């Protein structure tokens, strides 16, 4: 039945006699007989209508009463895409009761059409003998069919298809199911279709069979319940005394139990037939969707009818499929097991299965697909709840590290597992002793895990992982603060525990008020619902009430510890600051400002000073009524710093000798000012002039130490930016004054690029790259044409210095390797610094500060430094290509020219097989891939690139006595990597241009030499036309359609690969049947000769044999046609 329909996908020639299925069996007789009678009644042309076989099939029915089959069921689902309902099934059942054959034929028609074929009756026999047309897209060669389409109507059709099968069994469960006709033949039909080679038949019938099995399981459960009830009634009646016992009732109950037992046996036989006929073969089908369907439905069977299916004989199929290569199949396995382990009763019956496959379930936590890992952890959590003794400490330790995973869902699932294992029971036990004691117990367990596991340094990731399951405990901010403020706790906190506890406090505040995961973990939720936003605001208000009085006390207690203070100063960012005024809490604000000032005066660390500056920035909001108080405190603090700085600068500029203490005091003051200048406008304190004099002195004399120069440059940089921010309607004089400051500062930074100290050089480079981008031509965009005077273009010398600095500090192998004594953390820090330097230089190119040709210094290191800077260079390549494609191609060419020149200077001329040259060629291959498949879009750029490359190759004459030709001749081999991107007409033009260049640049003796670079490049430009082959449109092979499925692709690939040893008859047969012109097939590289026509080689028994046999049968004069074609064909080696 399946074989004729396969022509829609495979083509009629693909099916061999071994694959075809003879129409036999009762099902086909019904179809055949019904069609013959209907066809004769319609057309009156049934030549064999009087056969005894047909008469026996229609015995008992009047021949004159036959009517054409209706397609109400098919129309309801395939045309209108409506979900199945009781009325549709009831209508069909009425027609089935009137005539079983006709009704069942309509059901066959429905399943065939559901596969994507037009199998409408009364023409069903014609459909079985002719190629059917799919209902889907792309015509008869499409591999698509209804079940794999994902648009909304077809998803609705799939749901309706599944529902119809379930409703059909539900409506037939009391009588028709046991008529030994409907379900028996339906199971036979689905079993046959599920064994088809056509994916559409196999997929659709497997889905129908599995849904049919699920429906039968539900019926079996109902029959089993009825049978148990009858048994209980029988036992109750039998236990009565002889005088009260009703004999008739006992006999009726016995008869009912016997009937229910027969029904149950028959249902189990049907389920056994489906399981052995469909599931056992299809659960390992090559199509992952089919395997997923089987596993999903088996999970339903085990949950609904655990008495029969929850055994090791069925569980083993799920256990084996846990190793499936496809993500969706593994997901279905895990979800099926979750449904089983969620019940303690069912889990207790799976001890053997758990012990056998527990290792695989634990290993799936680290699955390459994050969602599979999530489901695996959820499964282990259920096992932990219902079979705790099955998971050892080693199994649990395999899950714990996942709480620090970068994937948010995976980390949250691991957090819940950790909470159930470590914290849940203990916290509940501690909570019975009191709220404060329960909180202490929970946080002590949390810190013990965080510190003792030594898996990560930042508690923010652990808090984020536990937030979904332990948010109540983590939101106990008051309890956390009191634990930190305890002077003599019963069990003392260590320094490491205090640091972790403060980080937990700040992380929980951020999580509650912002709902964003930590840096590097995603994806986070982008849009919050109104309810979630309301919860966040409530949490913000609660934590503000709790911590406003306690924050100054915490800062006072830990004021000497920079790390703890830096964390605590982040708290005001998550406060509802309006409560300071509305809640009459101004006294706590004064205490907080006093603590911030004390921190600034006491510490010089970068992190703690930045935290203090941000805290003041958050509090200095003009919208708040307490703004004047905060502004006064800030001004007082900056006055103190500015006065000290002015005094130190005056002494330093006049002194001939710098005392070490004076230098330290000056450096500390400047560092505080530079950090505050980043967040606050310090222009009123007029710091430009003293800072500029100090930097000028450092450049002129070199006597100013590094720790003073670096913050001085930072202060000047922020002073310029704040002045630019305040320019609104400024006069030309103000603009010119600002431009003068920019030019002076850039000149001093340029001088610092050649400083002895590397830290000063890097700071100067960073500030220059940022400032040049700010004052680049993009400054006047967006209606800011009045700022035209501020555009600053760097001089050529500055551009050269920037490029040279990049070569010395970024693309330097010595810098990259670092010292042997440097630890891993130090190397990573240095790598981040170098990446920032490279990113700053690339910004100058992208924002048109530097010419695009300057990017050649970056592009030429793309392959060598791909591991460290590959992402930055690749993004720069992409951005610059969008700016100017032609100039971008010339820059790539320049990069290759520079590399070849450097190689020749180091190694001298030689063959193109050296390691250095192969590295350059690999880089050229990578660059060629960046041009992409859009040949017309890149045509002019590629053509100009090749012409310029040919000129460069012959630019330098050959060294005297050299055997390798012109000095730059190997560059042609690099150009050959870009030849496949050229269009055929451009290849011809370039080939001619190469010949003219050779004649003009080379002597006649050199032209006769066959240098490998020229031969390689010439071969890359030569097409089939230049090889003497007929490549006209008629002779070219027709482009094959892209296969729509993996199976079809394999079939096409298998047909297209012709071994050289096959005779020409076989090649010709394949060419004729495949629709490809014979001359094109013969020119595909097969080493044949005309005399092979006389050879007779057996064609074998493969799938090509019937196709070639058919070709000989259809074309009697094939031999003469082949001879005529061969006489006009040019044979090549």
From TrEMBL:
Q: Which keywords appear in this protein's UniProt record, sorted alphabetically?
A: Cell cycle, Cell division, Chromosome, Chromosome partition, Coiled coil, Nucleus
Domain SCD as annotated: residue spans: 279-364
State the compartments where it is located: Nucleus; Chromosome; Chromosome, Centromere
Q: Which InterPro entries match?
A: ARM-like, ARM-type_fold, Cohesin_Scc3/SA, HEAT_SCC3-SA, SCD, STAG
Entry's family note: Belongs to the SCC3 family.
- Answer whether the UniProt record assigns the keyword Acyltransferase to this protein: no
Summary of the function given for this chain in its UniProt record: Component of cohesin complex, a complex required for the cohesion of sister chromatids after DNA replication. The cohesin complex apparently forms a large proteinaceous ring within which sister chromatids can be trapped. At anaphase, the complex is cleaved and dissociates from chromatin, allowing sister chromatids to segregate.
Recall the taxonomic lineage recorded for the source organism.
Answer: Eukaryota, Metazoa, Chordata, Craniata, Vertebrata
Mind telling me which Pfam families this protein's record contains?
HEAT_SCC3-SA (PF24571), SCD (PF21581), STAG (PF08514)
In terms of superkingdom, the source organism counts as: Eukaryota
The answer, when asked if Coiled coil is one of the entry's keywords, is yes
Q: What is this protein called?
A: Cohesin subunit SA
Q: Which residues form a coiled coil?
A: 243-273
Can you state the subunit structure given in the record? Part of the cohesin complex which is composed of a heterodimer between a SMC1 protein (SMC1A or SMC1B) and SMC3, which are attached via their hinge domain, and RAD21 which link them at their heads, and one STAG protein.
| GO biological process annotation, one example | chromosome segregation
| Gene Ontology MF terms | chromatin binding
Q: Where are the residues of the annotated region Disordered?
A: 513-536, 1029-1060
Q: Which cellular components does GO assign to this protein? A: chromatin; chromosome, centromeric region; meiotic cohesin complex; nucleus
């Amino acid at each position: 039945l399946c074989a004729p329909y396969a022509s829609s996908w495979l083509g009629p020639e693909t099916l061999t006699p071994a694959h075809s299925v003879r129409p036999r069996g009762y099902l086909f007789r019904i179809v055949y007989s019904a069609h013959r009678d209907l066809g004769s009644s319609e057309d009156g042309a049934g030549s064999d209508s009087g056969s005894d076989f047909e008469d026996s099939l229609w015995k008992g029915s009047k021949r004159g009463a036959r009517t054409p089959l209706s397609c109400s069921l098919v129309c309801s689902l395939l045309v209108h895409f409506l979900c199945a309902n009781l009325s549709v099934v009831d209508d069909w059942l009425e027609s089935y009761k009137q005539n079983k054959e006709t009704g069942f034929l309509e059901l066959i028609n429905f399943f065939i059409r559901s596969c994507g074929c037009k199998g409408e009756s009364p023409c069903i026999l014609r459909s079985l003998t002719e190629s059917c047309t799919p209902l889907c897209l792309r015509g008869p060669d499409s591999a698509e069919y209804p079940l794999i389409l994902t648009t909304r109507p077809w998803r609705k059709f799939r749901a309706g298809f599944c529902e119809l099968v379930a409703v059909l069994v539900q409506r037939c469960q009391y009588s028709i199911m046991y008529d030994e006709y409907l379900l028996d033949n339906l199971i036979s039909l689905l079993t046959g279709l599920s064994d088809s080679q056509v994916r559409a038949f196999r997929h659709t019938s497997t889905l129908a069979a599995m849904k049919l099995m699920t429906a039968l399981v539900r019926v079996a459960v109902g029959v089993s319940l009825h049978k148990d009830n009858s048994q209980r009634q029988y036992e109750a009646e039998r236990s009565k005394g002889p005088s009260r016992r009703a004999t008739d009732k006992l006999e009726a109950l016995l008869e009912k139990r016997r009937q229910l037992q027969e029904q149950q046996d028959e249902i189990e036989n049907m389920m056994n037939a489906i399981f052995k006929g469909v599931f056992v073969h299809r659960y390992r089908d090559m199509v992952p969707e089919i395997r997923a369907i089987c596993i999903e439905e088996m999970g339903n069977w085990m949950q609904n009818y655990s008495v029969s299916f929850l055994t090791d004989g069925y569980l083993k199929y799920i256990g084996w499929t846990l190793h499936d290569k496809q993500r969706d199949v593994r997901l279905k396995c895990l979800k099926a097991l979750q449904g089983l382990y969620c019940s303690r009763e069912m889990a207790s019956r799976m001890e053997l299965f758990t012990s056998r496959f527990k290792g695989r379930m634990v290993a799936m936590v680290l699955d390459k697909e994050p969602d599979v890992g999530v489901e695996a952890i959820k499964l282990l959590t259920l096992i932990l709840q219902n079979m705790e003794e099955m998971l050892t400490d080693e199994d649990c330790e395999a899950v714990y590290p996942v709480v620090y995973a970068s994937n948010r869902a995976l980390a949250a699932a691991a957090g819940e597992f950790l909470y159930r294992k470590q914290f849940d029971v203990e916290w509940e036990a501690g909570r019975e002793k009191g709220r404060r004691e329960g909180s202490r117990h929970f946080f002590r367990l949390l810190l013990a895990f965080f510190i003792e596991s030594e898996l990560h340094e930042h508690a923010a990731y652990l808090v984020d992982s536990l937030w979904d399951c332990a948010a109540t405990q983590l939101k106990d901010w008051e309890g956390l603060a009191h634990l930190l403020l305890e002077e003599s706790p019963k069990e003392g906190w260590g320094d490491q525990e205090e640091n972790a506890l403060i980080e937990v406090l700040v992380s929980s505040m951020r999580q509650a008020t912002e709902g964003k995961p930590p840096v590097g973990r995603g994806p986070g939720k982008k849009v919050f619902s109104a309810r979630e936003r309301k919860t966040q605001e409530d949490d913000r208000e609660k934590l503000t009430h709790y911590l406003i009085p306690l924050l100054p006390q915490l800062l006072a207690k830990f004021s000497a510890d920079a790390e703890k203070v830096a964390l605590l100063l982040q708290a005001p960012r998550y406060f509802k600051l309006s409560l300071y005024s509305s809640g009459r809490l101004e006294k706590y604000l004064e205490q907080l400002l006093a603590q911030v000032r004390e921190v600034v005066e006491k510490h010089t660390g970068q992190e703690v000073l930045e935290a203090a500056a941000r805290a003041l920035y958050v509090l200095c909001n003009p919208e708040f009524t307490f703004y004047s108080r905060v502004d006064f405190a800030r001004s007082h603090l900056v006055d103190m710093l500015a006065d000290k700085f002015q005094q130190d600068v005056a002494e330093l500029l006049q002194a001939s000798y710098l005392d070490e203490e004076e230098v330290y005091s000056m450096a500390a003051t400047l560092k505080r000012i530079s950090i505050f200048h980043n967040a606050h406008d310090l222009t009123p304190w007029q710091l430009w002039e003293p800072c500029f004099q100090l930097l000028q002195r450092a450049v002129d004399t070199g006597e100013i130490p590094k720790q003073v120069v670096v913050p001085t440059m930072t202060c000047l940089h922020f002073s310029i930016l704040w002045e630019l921010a305040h320019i609104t309607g400024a006069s030309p004089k103000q603009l010119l004054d600002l431009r003068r400051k920019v030019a002076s500062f850039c000149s001093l930074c340029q001088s610092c690029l050649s400083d002895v100290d590397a830290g000063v050089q890097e700071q100067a480079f960073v500030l220059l790259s940022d400032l040049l981008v700010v004052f680049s031509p993009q400054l006047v965009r967006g209606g800011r044409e009045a700022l035209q005077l501020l555009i600053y273009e760097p001089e050529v010398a500055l551009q050269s210095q920037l490029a040279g600095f990049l070569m010395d500090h970024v693309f330097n192998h010595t810098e990259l390797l670092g010292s042997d004594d440097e630890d891993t953390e130090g190397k990573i820090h240095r790598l981040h610094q170098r990446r920032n330097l490279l990113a700053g230089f690339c910004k100058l190119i992208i924002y048109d500060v530097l010419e695009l040709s300057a990017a050649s210094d970056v592009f030429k290191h793309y392959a060598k430094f791909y591991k460290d800077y590959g992402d930055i260079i690749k993004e720069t390549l992409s951005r610059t290509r969008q700016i100017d494609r032609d100039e971008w191609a010339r820059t790539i060419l320049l990069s290759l020219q520079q590399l070849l020149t450097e190689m020749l200077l180091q190694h001298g001329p030689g063959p193109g097989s050296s390691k250095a040259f192969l590295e350059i060629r690999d880089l050229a291959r990578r660059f060629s891939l960046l041009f992409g498949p859009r040949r017309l879009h890149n045509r002019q750029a590629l053509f100009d690139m090749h012409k310029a490359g040919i000129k460069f190759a012959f630019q330098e004459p050959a060294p005297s006595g050299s055997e390798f030709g012109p000095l730059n001749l190997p560059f042609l081999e690099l150009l050959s990597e870009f030849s496949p991107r050229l269009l055929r007409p451009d290849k011809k033009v370039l080939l001619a241009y190469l010949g003219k260049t050779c004649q003009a640049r080379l002597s006649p003796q050199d032209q006769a030499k066959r240098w490998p670079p020229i031969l390689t490049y010439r071969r890359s430009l030569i097409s089939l036309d230049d090889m003497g082959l007929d490549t006209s449109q008629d002779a070219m092979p027709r482009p094959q359609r892209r296969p729509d499925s993996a199976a079809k692709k394999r079939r096409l690939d298998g047909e297209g690969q012709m071994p050289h040893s096959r005779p020409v008859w076989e090649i010709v047969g394949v060419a004729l049947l495949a629709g490809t012109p014979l001359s094109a097939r013969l020119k595909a590289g097969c080493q044949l000769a005309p005399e092979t026509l006389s050879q007779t080689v057996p064609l074998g028994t493969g799938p090509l044999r019937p196709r070639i046999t058919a070709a000989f049968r259809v074309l009697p004069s094939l031999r003469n046609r082949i001879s005529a074609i061969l006489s006009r064909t040019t044979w090549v080696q």
